[in-house]
Design goal:
Structural class: alpha+beta
Number of domains: 4
Helix content: 40-55%
Shape: elongated
Number of helices: 16
Largest sheet: 6 strands, mixed
Distance between the termini: 125 Å
Mean pLDDT: 81
Radius of gyration: 37 Å
Strand content: 15-25%
Length: 442
């Protein structure tokens, strides 16, 4: 009789322990599966418990410690008591371990882990307000053990503390993707982070103002010409050179120069920073900030001026083009028809190959305008075209000898290089199309 009563009591205790195991498992899942919308609904519907729940979500260390310790202790007790009950069954005897381990494992998995956690995911909003008093109670009861284990854990961590490693680019990109998917980052923020990541992959030559577009002041000009140029320009800084842009001596702070009643060119000019065209944009941005400068002169491999680059040019790769008013700048590559595009002459070959799935390439050439000239072996006129590497590229617009716009057409298969004057709408700026072309007889 007494043996039967003891067995009943042990069975009741086992059920109670299973309930506690389910409680700790479901509480952990309910807390850490909440999203922002569910938290807000709990605040609206349960104002008495909401502050405490919000605090645990913001600082979950103590809560997590309590739930893990409680769940571990209960599961150990369930396994031990279950083994004792099975061992007491007549006929089991020496096979009790073989029977108890799989039986108690299955019982704990189903009733102590899987089922409670699935239920908690579906009913987290309803469970947490009811669980709050019980969790507070267990946080008080298990606090001494939690403090002891925390101190012990810190000692172990200190002894085996690994070297701190920074995030790789792939890990950071993954984090950005997750942030965008979960709504933590909006589209503009995601674009800015992508832009920051691209800085290390781009060089000064990718975003600089090319030499042919440089507007500056020649020290050989008269003060009147200097003042007229400064008043006419829309740039904040102008390069100051002697006779040629290859001899830049500094940069003129245009507003300061114009506000000076004496218009002293020397006093408004500061020393130039020279950088190679291969410098990464992230390194260049740091260099500009460290030297408290806004602009630098980009040099080619021979030491000549390749272009100019400002801090604003770099930041625009992060934030996007800054457009005035509602004006929208046309993209560098515009689709005209299937396999036919209007392309800006300064568009890089890498971008064209990436966007249009092509394989355009020429030695020493980075942009489509230079590629056309390299394939033709001479400067083309507006309307002339070149066929190479599976494409037909026609010069759409010129400024002097610089190709400003082309029409690119993908051919079904590569054909021999040839030229044709076929586009009646082709235009060029800087000379008439009937004038003798450079290298041709009149």
């Amino acid at each position: 009789m007494m043996h039967a009563l003891a067995t009943i009591i042990e069975g009741a205790v086992l059920l109670l322990l299973l309930v506690l195991s389910a409680f700790f498992s479901s509480a952990e899942t309910a807390f850490f599966s909440l999203n922002a919308l569910q938290v807000q609904r709990i605040k609206d519907r349960h104002p008495r418990h909401a502050p405490w729940i919000g605090e645990q979500i913001r600082q979950p260390a103590r809560l997590l410690s309590t739930l893990l310790i409680g769940n571990t202790l209960v599961n150990i007790a369930v396994s031990s008591l279950g083994y004792a009950l099975i061992d007491a069954i007549p006929g089991v005897g020496r096979y009790s371990a073989v029977v108890a381990i799989p039986v108690m494992t299955i019982i704990l998995l189903i009733f102590g882990e899987v089922a409670p956690k699935r239920y908690a995911i579906l009913h987290a909003e309803r469970l947490l307000p009811r669980y709050s008093p019980l969790i507070r109670f267990w946080m008080v009861v298990l606090r001494p053990l939690g403090l002891f284990l925390a101190a012990l854990t810190k000692r172990v961590e200190h002894s085996f503390k690994p070297e701190r490693k920074s995030l790789t680019d792939e890990e950071l990109l993954t984090a950005v993707e997750l942030g965008a998917e979960t709504g933590v980052l909006d589209e503009e923020e995601r674009s800015m982070v992508d832009g920051i990541m691209r800085l290390s992959e781009m060089t000064a030559s990718d975003v600089m103002i090319p030499r042919v577009d440089i507007e500056g002041l020649d020290l050989e000009d008269t003060p009147t010409e200097h003042l007229a140029t400064a008043r006419r320009t829309h740039y904040h800084y102008l390069p100051v050179y002697r006779e040629t842009p290859d001899a830049i001596e500094g940069f003129l702070d245009v507003p300061r120069y114009l506000l000076d009643p004496e218009h002293n060119l020397r006093q408004a000019t500061f020393a130039a920073l020279f950088v190679p065209e291969t410098i990464d944009l992230d390194d260049l941005l740091i260099t500009l900030q460290r030297n408290h400068l806004h602009i630098a002169c980009v040099l080619d491999e021979f030491g000549g001026t390749a272009g100019l680059i400002s801090r604003g040019d770099i930041l625009e790769t992060i934030t996007g083009e800054i457009l005035l008013g509602s004006e929208q700048e046309a993209p560098e590559i515009q689709t005209l028809a299937d396999n036919r595009w209007l392309v800006d002459g300064s568009t890089s070959l890498d971008e064209i190959n990436h966007e249009l799935d092509l394989e355009l390439d020429a030695e020493g050439v980075d942009r489509i305008g230079g590629w056309v000239t390299a394939q033709a072996g001479r400067f083309l006129r507006a309307g002339e075209a070149v066929e190479a590497q599976g494409c037909r590229v026609q010069v759409r617009r010129l400024r002097k000898l610089r190709i400003e716009q082309v029409i690119l057409e993908r051919l079904s298969r590569p054909t021999p290089d040839q030229y044709a004057d076929t586009d009646p709408d082709a235009t060029e700026t800087g000379r008439d199309t009937d004038e003798p072309f450079f290298g041709e007889e009149a």
